[in-house]
Amino acid sequence: MKFLLLIEWLAAFLLFFLMLKDDAMLAFCVLIFSLIYLFGLLESRKDPQRIHAHGMVGGIMFFVAAVLTFLNDLARFELKFNLSRTLLILLGLVGLIQARAVRKQFK
Amino acid sequence: MTIRVALCGNPNVGKTSLFNALTGMRQYVANWPGVTVEVKEGVRSWKGHQLIITDLPGTYSLFATSLDEKIARDFLLYNTPDVVVVVADALSMEQGLYLLLEILELEARAILVVNAIDEAKKKGLIIDKQELSKHLKVPVVLTSALTGEGIHELLDCIVSTASTEQKKVLFNFSDETEKMIQQLATLIKTQVGESASRWFAIKYLEGDPHTVKQLSQFDLQSTVKPGSLKSRIARERYDHIQLIVKESVAAISKELSMSEAIDHVLTHKFIGIPVFLALMYLAFKFAFETVQPLSDLLETAFGRLADLVRAHLGDGMIASMLADGVLGGVGAVLVFVPNIFALFFLLGIMEDSGYLPRAAFVMDRVMYSLKLSGRSFMSFLLGFGCSVPAVLSTRGMLDTRERIVSVLSVPFISCSARLPVYLLIASIFFSRNQGMVVFSIYLLSMFAAMISSLVLNKVIFKGQRSVFILELPRYRLPSFKNLALYTWLRGKHFLVKAGTIIFVSSLVLWALMYFPNPNDVTQSFAAQIGRAVSFVLKPLKFDWRASTALFFGVAAKEIIVSTFGMLFNTTDEGLAAQLSQLFDPVTAFSFIVFVMAYIPCFATLATIKSEIGTKYVVITIFYSLFIAYVLALAVRMMGGIFV
């Protein structure tokens, strides 16, 4: 799980820089959500449930951000498929699948 | 037969959901404590009986420390319902059982309802109701207000309990404690009657301030000190409750639950607050940018309708009244309906999922440094909808000082009525960053409320910091029904206002602008009022038109938009073009900052009067006006440096 969190954190961090010019506030939201993955990396391996918790919540946050951004583009008839949008949607989709998979770890 | 039923329990155990399920009513159910701050009543016919069901505010005990707890306690004490239904949460029953033991001391016919049984089952909990009933000596019903499980059984149980003879089911304390209770009860028996004497004796020994005050006429202090057995009574009850729970509920494993896992991240000490702010920003972006095309459509529709009216009715007074007064005034406000409903929809998701109490929890650290608690933050959050329920929600605060400070600070929070003003200005002057500008105003309003609390606490109300105790509700997937109800009830308030206050105000305003000279608005009565006020606002660069809007906006903030709509639709140029001439971007921003902070609407002032007194209404008016002026001036000066 930690490896996946590391990949996601790096991708999210890259996304922050890519979005900074177009939409600074949304970029900062992405940065904040990436911190969820980062703090998951700092959790002890002895407590895998806490690492999973970061994966699940981070995944949900990226999914929410991706859906709202997609709807915003759709409402303006400006569907963008540049690198930053593609990466955000990818992170959102992976986040959703990850959250659904990880939730089984909890009561 | 008519049966009077009281529904009571700890905050956020699902009383209101149960009330709705029992009565078929549609009271809004929030996923956080303290929603019911007043008594609500509903009627249900069941098998030839009429049940009058009263939903009481949530209370942890009958040791009434806050206003909502006092309401619940006084109802049980002085209205003596036929049956008291005590609702406990299936996942944390202890506190609910404590309340039940207290209520049994009142010798009431009680029923224990263990609610949210569906969630308990999901978590592998098995609750043995026979065992519970055996130990507590009261009927026990397992329910789920969400799925409807056990509701009919509860109705049957209410009917059968009401027809049974009232019996004494008292908790036996240790011999030593019982002896003291009996001694004291004998002393006060002649004054309050045999049945209540034991209850008063226990409350006196617990140090309940209301009971101590009530019994101050007797010389009891020489026998025993009030509050001398407070911790012993609580300990003995809890020891007993733990035994009951151990016997009746199956053990659970040590794994993290879903709620605990989510809380581990969302209430994290480093990322809890940033995540909350990020989510709020996304909500605002959705409500003010994504939904904007719908508002634009409405705006076009109202414009076309006004043109149609003018085309058919000519340039007479009636045409002007309909096109400029009704469509220009009310229409200018109604175009923001999609934004407002969208915002409430997203806030509803946050509230119904159980996230908002977590926001209060993570903000408690910040609030504590302002000598407030997370409870004040919850009132502030409610203020985003409307200041009236936000002021009412302060009833749950234990500390009077904290309550007054919160009531005086809540009006700074941007309510939905101010939103049309922000959106109008932001769409004209900051169209590229509309969402960010509105979000920044909301942040500023929160900041203003917090700074106001700090100043009031430091300068006027010097007191101790209060402690915030909040039972965090479980996370749940928001139900569409509850979400739709939440959005509708909050949004309806806006629509009703548009059809009543704003409609009437628009007509009055139209008349003030139309007379005495229909062809020259600058000579109108409204303009004369605006000019009289504008000299005070001159340093802020608000001319007579802005002053007129602000003057009439005191009644309800949406009227500011109506006023602009009518003032500028009287010429051929559009509202946007006219406003662009009226303000530069800095003045426009200082105008919305002024609107954010200045005098709350009449409804809020009336609520403040009824809650904490007329003196504080006067203080609120001058205090908010002063803060608004200072903030707007600061924006002007800083803007002057940078722009």
TrEMBL record, chain A:
It comes from the Bacteria. The keyword Membrane applies. Keywords: Membrane, Transmembrane, Transmembrane helix. The chain crosses the membrane at residues 6-39, 51-71, 83-102. This is Uncharacterized protein.
Automatic annotation (TrEMBL), chain B:
It is a multi-pass membrane protein. GO terms for molecular function: ferrous iron transmembrane transporter activity; GTP binding; metal ion binding. InterPro entries: Fe2_transport_prot-B (IPR003373), Fe2_transport_prot_B_C (IPR011640), FeoB_Cyto (IPR041069), FeoB_GTPase (IPR050860), G_FEOB_dom (IPR030389), Gate_dom (IPR011642), GTP-bd (IPR006073), P-loop_NTPase (IPR027417). It comes from the Bacteria. GTP binds at residues 9-16, 34-38, 55-58, 115-118. PROSITE patterns: G_FEOB. Belongs to the TRAFAC class TrmE-Era-EngA-EngB-Septin-like GTPase superfamily. FeoB GTPase (TC 9.A.8) family. Probable transporter of a GTP-driven Fe(2+) uptake system. This is Ferrous iron transport protein B. The gene is feoB.
